[in-house]
C-alpha cells in the first residue's frame, strides 16, 4: 500500500470542517409504523406506487445488491446521479478553486474538463500518444504540489481502447494525489476492472455506470468505488436524497437480471466485431481503431460529409473529426444487427460502392 498518500492533506479544509445536512431518515434507524418526522404527505401520492416518503439517503438495498454482484462492500460504494455527480464531488472535495490543478489526458470524456471549469480548477492536459496510451514522462512533468486528481478513462472515450494496465499502476504507485479511473465501458472490455485493486491502492477511485451495458441511461445512476474513507467524504458532500425512490426501485429490479445483461454484452461484442470487419473492407475507410467498448472510432475520407449523409437518412453517429488525435474520425455506437447493417450500407452508398 502506498504510504505516501495522505487523504487528510488532500481534502479541502472547508470539507474537513463541514457538518453535513442531517435528514430525518439519517437520525432514525429501525422500523416504525407512524412517521411524523419529515413533513411528508401522510395520505400517499397520486400515483400507483406511494412516493410520499423520502428515499433511503444511502441507498443501502441497492448497495447490498451491488455487493452481491461485484463483491465490493457497501462502505466502499457511492451512488450518484450519473457518474457526473461523482466527478463534481471529486473537484469539490479535493480541489481548492483557483489554486489546485488536475491532469487530463485527451482525447477523453468531456465532463472532466467541464466540471473543472465549473469549479474553477486549473486543467493540465497531456495528450495520449499516437496509439492512444499514456505519456508517463509528460504526465510526470506536469505534476506539482497542487496536482490533486488525474483522470484516466479506460476503456477510453472516444477512442475505445483500454489503457495499458501497467502504466496506470505506475501512476497509482508514484502519484500522491487521487487517480480516477473511469470504467464506464468496462463490461465490454477484455481487461479486468480495477475494482479488484481497491485494497492495494488508497488513492484509487473507480467510476462505473448503469447507463451502458445495463441499459439504464434514463435512470441516471452512477457508481464510485474507493476506500471507505474517501466514500465517507463523498457521502458528506452529496445532497441528502440524491437518488430518488423510483430510480432505486427500478435499479433493484434490473439488478436481478444479470443473465439478460450478460447476453446483451455478448451480442454487442459480436456485433462490434462484425462492424469492424465490414467497415475495414471499405477502401475509403482509412482505419478502424481497436475497441474494448460498445463503440468504434473510424477514420475515413470526408468524415463530415459522411456524417451529414447519415443524418439525412435518420442515422445519428458522433462527429469527432475536430478532436485532437481523432482528426477525420466518426464515433459509431454498436447497435442492433439491423442498425449496424444499415449504417454500413449507407456509408457504402455515400462512397458509391
TrEMBL record:
Entries under Pfam families matching the protein: Aminotran_1_2 (PF00155)
GO terms for biological process, alphabetical: L-histidine biosynthetic process
PROSITE patterns per UniProt: AA_TRANSFER_CLASS_2 (PS00599)
Residue ranges of every copy of the Aminotransferase class I/classII large domain listed in the record: 49-346
InterPro entries the UniProt entry points to: Aminotrans_II_pyridoxalP_BS (IPR001917), Aminotransferase_I/II_large (IPR004839), HisP_aminotrans (IPR005861), PyrdxlP-dep_Trfase (IPR015424), PyrdxlP-dep_Trfase_major (IPR015421), PyrdxlP-dep_Trfase_small (IPR015422)
SUPFAM superfamilies, per the entry: PLP-dependent transferases (SSF53383)
Keywords associated with the record: Amino-acid biosynthesis, Aminotransferase, Histidine biosynthesis, Pyridoxal phosphate, Transferase
Residues found modified as N6-(pyridoxal phosphate)lysine: 212
Molecular function terms from GO: histidinol-phosphate transaminase activity; pyridoxal phosphate binding
Reactions catalysed according to its record: L-histidinol phosphate + 2-oxoglutarate = 3-(imidazol-4-yl)-2-oxopropyl phosphate + L-glutamate
Enzyme category, top tier: transferase
Subunit organization: Homodimer.
Name recorded for this polypeptide: Histidinol-phosphate aminotransferase
